[in-house]
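agent> fetching stored inputs for the nicotinamide-adenine-dinucleotide docking request
agent> found them:
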Amino acid sequence: MSPSEQPITREAQDQLERLRQAIDAIDHDMVALLKERQEQVEKVLQLKKTHGLSVYHPAREENLISEKRRIGRAVGLDADYLEDIFRRILRQSRVEQTAQLARRGIRPGANVLMVGGCGAMGRYLYDWFGKSGYRMRCLDRDDWPQVGVLCQEADLAIISVPIASTPAVARRLGPHLPADCVLADVTSVKQAPLEAMLAAHPGPVVGLHPLFGPVTTTMDKQVVVATPGRSPKACQWLLDQFADWGAIVMTTPAEDHDDIMSIVQALRHFATFIFGRFLYEKRVRLDEALEYSSPIYRLEFGMVGRLFAQDAGLYSEIIFASPERRALLKEYLDCARSNLEMIANDDKAVFEKHFRQVAEWFDPFSRQALRESTYLIDKLIERF
Ligand code: NAD
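agent> prediction call returned; pasting tokens
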């Protein structure tokens, strides 16, 4: 008993016990209802399988969430709390459905050649296609003497080799592919590989960029960017396959992909690298820094740690992918340097003026960012 607690009467104790039992019974009912819900979801899944329907219907999900929020408010419950619970329930249904539908191939029995199939991403995709009923073949670095046999009657060839090697691999592979074989790649930059594939293979060509890594266990809501090359109709089944696995396929020209990825990936990773490198050079005591960090700072350190837990080669390839990217990173450092004078002059007024300019420009995203990051922090607190 804590010092502020009062001794409790027998009657109050009984009442408390009865209330606790009532809550336990409600929890029990909730579990039974979740089970019942899952059984209904199973029936929906069977129907979807029969009629070849997709798992994820963004509009239906958003309507459902809005409806739950409305009902929640009507009975005096916090709408955010209800939204949290229902998003988790919907995600569970989606993941279970996706896992089961993933066993279905859009073209089961088709021959798929995975070039670089012994690498991280190659192995990952080899597994996904393999478990969906495709006949898999792998061509890695030492298998070129067998390229002729491996390409025979191939319906799809996917190149998953280091970024800088993709164009040369496409040139080497192209002459061996059947005319109607779909040639695709998963390179994190798109323009140069797509041009090389188009030049090397006269048949259907499409560039892909999965915006996730091989540690992702589900493709649920993961984005795959598709950059059209040639004969989009002949390539469509490949995009449908990713959609069936739960991914969201976004089609965009290769040039636009590379422009936006320079910011989304290269610049962000580089800025994180600089931050990590600075901590290292200052020999900052990470354990102490983390101990004194509230969840938001922990999250930020977490994003830095996450980068350095991954493959240096992959990140150097993304960051150094093209002269344009390197020029952009130089501009970024020039921008950082341009703030030196303000720091040297202890000029808070300039800082605040610049801060407000950016804040105005970021709006309304900044309000959304505040909402989303608060959500992430809450999740972090719940779990750790
Ligand atoms: P990785 O280094 O793990 O694998 C590359 C594979 O290619 C290796 O097995 C290697 O032996 C093979 N290879 C190299 N040169 C070859 C050649 N000349 N012929 C045949 N095989 C050759 O790299 P990874 O992380 O799997 O990345 C592969 C591709 O996937 C890259 O283009 C990358 O941009 C893209 N990608 C990776 C990720 C990721 O998180 N790993 C995410 C999205 C896209």
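agent> quick read of the result: The two ends are 27 Å apart (CA to CA).
agent> awaiting further instructions
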